[in-house]
Amino acid sequence: MSNKVRLVEVGPRDGLQNEPGSVPSAIKITLVERLADCGLCHIEAASFVSPKWVPQMADGHAILTGIRRQPGVIYSALTPNLKGLEAAIAAGVDEVAVFTAASESFCRRNINCSIDESLARFTPLLAKARQHRLKVRGYVSTALGCPYEGNIAPAAVARVAGALYRIGCMEISLGDTIGTGTPNQACAMLAAVRQEVPITQLAVHFHDTYGQALANIYAVLEQGIRIIDSSVAGLGGCPYAPGASGNVATEDVVYLLNGLGIDTGVDLGRLVDTGRWISQQLGRPNGSKTGRAWKNES
Ligand SMILES: CC(C)(COP(=O)([O-])OP(=O)([O-])OC[C@H]1O[C@@H](n2cnc3c(N)ncnc32)[C@H](O)[C@@H]1OP(=O)([O-])[O-])[C@@H](O)C(=O)NCCC(=O)NCCSC(=O)C[C@@](C)(O)CC(=O)[O-]
């Protein structure tokens, strides 16, 4: 295996968008800063979506303008439409992400339009992002199963991923939104998607509802994936995917990659401390097995 993997830390966005209570902006800011101090180079810090849909993310401007920025770190945000992009630019975002799905039902529940309508909506957003020299990532949710439609055919995922790539998304992140996928499914899905998008431009974004995320990551690493999304302390879930648990925990992914001799540039001890801290702030159990087991002297 090539020995470099890029981690995209989505805890401050995917993690906190699903918290039942409102998390103070000061805590979110401290979280983003601490994650950067751990050596994470790409942090999805905010989301510029409708506050009526996801009130937990209403303070994106305060987060992006409030953080102490570290050179070399990308601070990105979700932007579902032009309005979101304009707000993200005003807040000084480094990179943005659009999001759609491989299943019609999930797409409609999450962003209130069909898949094709979402792609049409992204086209002017991509043009504007280009004017501002901003890279745009594209997410495909429900890549390994949908809470409303069940199994999703790999060809459906490939169609949407290919469309996002062709309209100008520089990287496509494949989301197992409800965390039901298994390694064989993940590899079959990836085999279809890589016909449409070069493997170097693909990321995986696996939730861990059924405890399969690390196995799926290992399987797709063997297929050549080198960009992995994860969330400190396994925070997260999608408000429009009932029952789905958090993302795979960043601590567990770093532990796995360290064991494989793959470099992430992340200080695992510091990351564990950050995961314990945010879990305490939120009053929830730490979702990282490594975070729970880690002894400071190890
Ligand atoms: C896409 C919309 C906006 C369509 O929502 P809509 O209701 O169809 O939009 P609209 O254009 O009719 O606007 C309705 C209201 O929202 C406002 N509005 C409209 N856009 C914005 C904006 N950007 N920022 C702030 N406000 C906005 C707009 O101004 C208007 O306000 P009003 O006139 O009623 O006062 C809505 O459905 C939405 O915000 N959805 C976001 C849902 C979401 O954030 N889901 C979680 C993130 S995705 C995810 O977690 C999956 C992922 C990425 O992690 C991968 C995986 O795990 O699968």
From TrEMBL:
Biological process per Gene Ontology, one example term: ketone body biosynthetic process
CDD domains, A to Z: DRE_TIM_HMGL (cd07938)
Family of the protein in this entry: Belongs to the HMG-CoA lyase family.
The organism's place on the tree of life at top rank: Bacteria
Xref: PANTHER family: HYDROXYMETHYLGLUTARYL-COA LYASE
Keyword Ribosomal protein in record: no
GO molecular function: hydroxymethylglutaryl-CoA lyase activity; metal ion binding
Source organism (scientific name): Oceanisphaera psychrotolerans
UniProt entry keywords in alphabetical sequence: Lyase, Metal-binding
Keyword Lyase found: yes
First-level EC class: lyase
Protein name: hydroxymethylglutaryl-CoA lyase
Domain Pyruvate carboxyltransferase residues, every copy: 5-272
